[in-house]
Specification:
single chain; 193 residues; alpha/beta; 7 helices; 23% strand; globular
Length: 193
C-alpha cells in the first residue's frame, strides 16, 4: 500500500503558499503537510499554522547551521518531503544529504533569469519590469547547495505588458504559484511514495 507522504513546510513570511498547499492536500491521501518550520518568530505564517492545525517550530541561524534541533524535529514528525514556501535562507548541506531530491522550492521568475542571492519577492518583479521582459513566471525546482539552481521540475509562463507595474507582475505570478505549486508537489510526492 502506498504511504501518505509527510510534508514539512519551511517559510519566512505571511504563509499564503503554506495555506494554499495545506488546503489543496486536505482530504487527499497522496501527501499531507504536517508542520511548519520558520526562521522568524513574528512571521504571520505561524498564526496560519495554528489555524490550519499544523505543528510549528521556530529556529535561529545557529540552530539552522548546526542542524541538530532541525533534524530532531523532522525525524520526530517522520518527514518525507520538504517544501520551501517563501523561505529565504540557503539550505545547508546536512539537509540536502538527508533529503536528496526531496527538497522542493518555487521561484517567482523563469530561472535561470532573475535568480540568485537577493532575488526574492518584489526584488524579482522589479527586476523583470526594469529589464523590459515580455514574459515571466514561476520555476519549481529541487534544491542543491546554491541559490536558485538545482534541477527544474516545472515552469509556467505569464505575459508581461509594458503597462504592468511590479505589483501587477507579482499578482500574475502569485496566481501561477497558487495554481501549480500544490499540483507539482503532489506529482513529486507520488513518485516517492
Amino acid at each position: 500500500m502506498n504511504k501518505t507522504i509527510r510534508i514539512a513546510l519551511f517559510a519566512s513570511g505571511s504563509g499564503t503558499n503554506v495555506e494554499n498547499i495545506t488546503n489543496y492536500f486536505n482530504g487527499k491521501t497522496t501527501a499531507k503537510p504536517v508542520c511548519v518550520l520558520c526562521n522568524k518568530p513574528d512571521a504571520f505564517v505561524l498564526e496560519r499554522a495554528k489555524r490550519l492545525n499544523l505543528d510549528s517550530l521556530t529556529f535561529n541561524r545557529a540552530d539552522f547551521n548546526d542542524g541538530e534541533k532541525i533534524m530532531e524535529y523532522l525525524r520526530k514528525n517522520e518527514i518525507d518531503l520538504i517544501v520551501l514556501a517563501g523561505f529565504l535562507w540557503l539550505v545547508p548541506e546536512y539537509l540536502i544529504k538527508e533529503y536528496p531530491n526531496r527538497i522542493v522550492n518555487i521561484h517567482p521568475a523563469l530561472l535561470p533569469k532573475f535568480g540568485g542571492k537577493g532575488m526574492y519577492g518584489m526584488h524579482v518583479h522589479e527586476a523583470v519590469k526594469q529589464s523590459g521582459e515580455t514574459e515571466t513566471g514561476i520555476t519549481i525546482h529541487l534544491i542543491d547547495g546554491n541559490y536558485d539552481k538545482g534541477n527544474t521540475v516545472f515552469q509556467a509562463k505569464v505575459q508581461v505588458s509594458p503597462s504592468d507595474s511590479p505589483d501587477d507582475i507579482a499578482n500574475k505570478v502569485h496566481k501561477l504559484e497558487y495554481e501549480y505549486y500544490p499540483k507539482i508537489i503532489e506529482e513529486i510526492a507520488e513518485k516517492i511514495r
